[in-house]
Design brief:
Layout: E1 15-17, E2 20-22, E3 28-30, E4 37-38, H1 54-65, H2 70-81, E5 87-91, H3 97-103, E6 109-114, H4 117-126, E7 131-134, E8 147-153, H5 159-165, E9 166-177, H6 183-186, E10 205-219, H7 221-229, H8 239-248, E11 251-264
Parallel strand pairs: 4-7, 5-6, 5-8, 6-7, 8-9
Antiparallel strand pairs: 1-2, 2-3, 9-11, 10-11
The structure holds S-adenosylmethionine (SAM) and zinc ion.
S-adenosylmethionine binds next to loops.
C-alpha cells in the first residue's frame, strides 16, 4: 500500500523511512506501535484529548460489533465497489468500522482520519488493510485534489476542506441521520422531536443519488446504553432516564440514514 501524507506543519510531502514520516524540512512523525501516525500538531489541538473519548469509542465499538448498522455498512460498500478510485479518505473514521469494510470492497488506498487518538488507536490495532492517522479533518494531511472518493459517516463536514481534497469529478459520500433516526430514545429527553433533514450540498459539489435506509430493531438495555453513549446527546440522559430505559428492558428503535452522493464539479474519472 503506497503512503502519501502531507506534512501538517509545512505542507511538504512526507516520506517514510522505517517507522518515521519525515518532510524535506525535517519535521518528523513516528508511527505508533499499533501502526497509526499522529499528524495532529499541538497548535491544531483545541483540547488535551480532542474528538471522541475512549468511553464513546468503546461504546460505539461494542454497538457496531453487534451488526445493527450492518445495512449502512453494506450500502456504503456497494457504492464504493462501483467507483474506480485510487485514494479514498474516510473523514472522521472513528474506530474504523466502515473504513475497513470499504477496504474490502475496493482496490484503492484507504485512509482513515480522526482527531480522536483513542478511536484511531482502536482502528489501527484491529485493521491492517487501511492507513490510519490522528489528524483534524478541518486541515487534513493530504495534497490538494488527493482523493477520488471522500466518505463521511456521522462526522463534521468542513466544506472548504472537502473541496480542496477532492479531485475534479471525485465522489463524496455522506451518511447522515434519516428523518426519525433514534426517535424512540430521543422521546425520553425531548418533548418535541425534530425530524432530521437532508444535508445541504457542499459548495463546489453537485448532488447525485440519495438513499434513505430505515430499519426498526429490537435492542436490549445493554445495546441501548451503548447506542446512547456513542451519540452527542448522551450527556442529556439523567439517572431517571437510565432507570426508565432499564425498566423497559426491550426497546424497538428506528435506525435511519440518508446516504447521499455528491460529485466534485469538474471533469474527472467519476464524472
Ligand atoms: C459520530 S463519530 C463517527 C465515527 C465513525 N465515522 C462511525 O460512524 O463509526 C464522529 C467522529 O468524528 C471525529 N471528529 C470530530 N471532529 C473532528 C475533526 N475536527 N477532525 C477529525 N475528526 C473529528 C470524532 O472524534 C468521532 O470519531
Ligand atoms: Zn514539514
Amino acid at each position: 500500500m503506497s503512503l502519501e501524507y502531507q506534512c501538517p506543519l509545512c505542507n511538504d510531502a512526507l516520506l517514510k523511512t522505517d517507522s518515521t514520516l519525515r518532510c524535506a524540512n525535517n519535521h518528523s512523525f513516528d508511527f505508533a506501535k499499533e501502526g497509526y501516525v499522529n499528524l495532529l500538531p499541538v497548535q491544531q489541538k483545541n483540547s488535551k484529548q480532542p474528538g471522541d473519548s475512549l468511553e464513546m469509542v468503546q461504546a460505539r465499538h461494542a454497538f457496531l460489533e453487534c451488526g445493527f448498522y450492518g445495512f449502512l455498512q453494506n450500502a456504503l460498500g456497494s457504492i464504493v465497489s462501483t467507483l474506480n478510485a485510487h485514494n479514498i479518505i474516510d473523514l472522521g473514521c472513528g474506530e474504523g468500522f466502515y473504513t475497513q469494510s470499504l477496504a474490502n470492497k475496493s482496490q484503492a488506498n484507504i485512509y482513515g482520519v480522526d482527531i480522536s487518538k483513542s478511536a484511531v488507536k482502536y482502528a489501527a490495532k484491529r485493521y491492517s488493510n487501511c492507513h490510519f492517522s490522528v489528524a483534524s479533518i478541518s486541515k487534513a494531511p493530504f495534497n490538494d485534489q488527493f482523493a477520488d472518493v471522500l466518505v463521511s459517516v456521522f462526522a463534521p463536514l468542513f466544506e472548504k476542506e472537502l473541496a480542496r481534497l477532492a479531485k475534479p469529478g471525485a465522489t463524496l459520500i455522506v451518511a447522515s441521520p434519516g428523518p426519525w433516526h433514534l426517535k424512540e430514545l430521543k422521546s425520553y429527553i425531548y418533548k418535541n422531536i425534530n425530524e432530521h433533514t437532508e444535508i445541504v450540498t457542499p459548495s463546489e459539489f453537485t448532488q447525485g443519488q440519495q438513499l434513505l435506509l430505515t430499519e426498526k430493531v429490537s435492542l436490549n438495555f445493554s445495546d441501548v446504553k451503548n447506542l446512547i453513549m456513542m451519540t452527542p446527546f448522551a450527556w442529556k440522559f439523567r439517572p431517571e432516564h437510565w432507570t426508565a430505559l432499564e425498566e423497559k428492558g426491550e426497546h424497538t428503535v428506528t435506525l435511519s440514514f440518508y446516504v447521499t452522493q455528491f460529485t466534485k464539479i469538474g471533469n474527472g474519472i467519476n464524472s
